[in-house]
Here is the input.
Amino acid sequence: MFDNLSERLSKTLKNISGRGRLTEDNIKETLREVRMALLEADVALPVIREFVAKVKEQAVGTDVSKSLTPGQVFVKIVQKELESAMGDVNETLDLKAAPPAVILMAGLQGAGKTTSVAKLAKFLTEREKKKVLVVSVDVYRPAAIKQLETLANEINVGFFPSDIKQKPIDIATAAIDHAKKNFFDVLIVDTAGRLHVDEGMMAEIQQLHSAINPVETLFTVDAMTGQDAANTAKAFNDALPLTGIILTKTDGDARGGAALSIRHITGKPIKFMGVGEKIEALEPFHPDRIASRILGMGDVLSLVEEIEQKIDKKQAEKLAKKVKSGKGFSLEDFRDQLVQMKSMGGMMGIMDKLPGMGNMSDKIKDQMGDKITVQMEAIINSMTPGERERPDIIKGSRKRRIAAGSGTQIQDVNKLLKQFTQMQKMMKKMSGKGGMKKMMRGMQGMMPPGGMGGGGGMFGR
Ligand SMILES: Nc1nc2c(ncn2[C@@H]2O[C@H](COP(=O)(O)OP(=O)(O)O)[C@@H](O)[C@H]2O)c(=O)[nH]1
Ligand SMILES: [Mg+2]
Here is the structure.
């Protein structure tokens, strides 16, 4: 998601010229481009209008300090507005109710409700240590109940059986009863969707809602549906007191419009986003991080969190200690990371989150595919422990030996060393006080004067 938007914005924002201050004149063209980029990303019109107006209002007359370019100042304003359009901060689920806290899922058929129920159940079990029960009231398709049962078994959470002959309200109240008696913390109720918004469906879910009084009513919506997503969200929001939104399929080639429109249209926060078909592919939605991702600055924080979740704890601690102590991040650590990356679903899965990766061409992405990870690992394996600790000693003859040993070319070794150096720099920035912030600033520093884009990527383009 966001690839196109990100690419367009980065190209646009560096075109601002002039010095001193932002004026109506020097941002006019850029604002027009921003508007076009948002239109192309399928953002709803009223949202675009408000967005552009706000950016303009803030930009005009803003002084540009000596150390920044007008482009950089403008980017900051755009970033802040992107964040606020998406709700500023991540809002978590409110599960403080007397157990079981009931979560009701709503949305069209195929939006990803059932999948998201399983993802949420896993998320709450693992990260919040909740005891979770799931139930399906989708009595129109027997396969739907079975689908949830299979998923529940896969992730080892409670499944309350139901049958297509029962009424949704009866099923849900029986499930609540069961949850109470068996001390479940959370009950997630999966519902039936239709292909389009229709009165029957809305009436049914409204009745269900008032019968079970959920603490969270989550509207699940497919990011791929763009403008439509905004319209459906409006219909559901009018019918139900939604408490939040799950935006699914953000891993696909959705243009990102839904993420920017939905908050504006419903006034409700996007709480999670689905980032893949697998059950672990669910992430809390952080507007600030998404905004930097859109602007091509990468979603480093989510990446760090993901790494924390998935990588070997001991290794992570080792690395954290090293980074903290300011000691060098060695090629050995780099290789460990590559291996970990593989276990995280490969490089591709995390690339979009890296700064400067968003607006990389697909061709380059292919070249950075998982084959490259294997090659990088081979190169590091061909080094001596000394070389891994002190890569600066790797010169001509050593390079030749390493290339031969790993079946690669000298250029490949050079490339790896360059990537490693960039990674090392980043690690250094992360180690100090306020490390993350400093790092983000550092990243901006890597951008060419005039704004974003260009050769700022971590893996050097
Ligand atoms: N790529 C991707 N596919 C998803 C995501 N969420 C759901 N899906 C897929 O979307 C399809 C419909 O999902 P399902 O949960 O059955 O939708 P429901 O009808 O709303 O219950 C399934 O093939 C899911 O695997 C996601 O975040 N990313
Ligand atoms: Mg379903």
Q: What stands out?
A: The beta strands are 101-106, 132-136, 158-160, 186-190, 216-222, 244-248, 270-274, 282-284. The longest helix spans residues 410-431. Residues 433-461 have pLDDT under 50 and may be disordered.
